[in-house]
């Protein structure tokens, strides 16, 4: 059975998107990006909302850049090898292999997908993840916290949800970014 993981870069005060400006430096640091690639190398399926898919589809061709460093090439190849499910009512077509579109998020279908999967899955993007969190589907939360406090925006955790979590791993990077991995109780 696969575990469902929700992970994003956040500001120190828990926002994935600031009302104004950036949430701070994140995965562009080669040390952090290499770590992210190692953590998610064995993901078998990515669950995306439309906006997150449109951001991540970059990886479909990133390995074609002759000047790309090894950690970028590896991440692109790992991403390309995984299945992708995009939840969207507006996306007409996808531009990556191993990708399908679902019009609605069905918690029971995701439960079945987890149960049938031999590899982990991720849910990416705060709007889609909020649905999975509310449905009790998320097994692990991976936060990559920047050193920036932004004071408002789109939050990592949805409002109105209480979670009791166990910290199972943490790491600080030279850039100041902190990684914290939590598991649901």
TrEMBL record:
One Pfam family it belongs to: RibD_C
Matching InterPro entries: DHFR-like_dom_sf, RibDG_C, Riboflavin_Biosynth_HTPR
Boundaries of every Bacterial bifunctional deaminase-reductase C-terminal domain copy: 4-178
Source organism, top-level taxon: Bacteria
Name this protein carries in UniProt: Dihydrofolate reductase family protein
Organism: Isoptericola peretonis
Lineage: Bacteria, Bacillati, Actinomycetota, Actinomycetes, Micrococcales
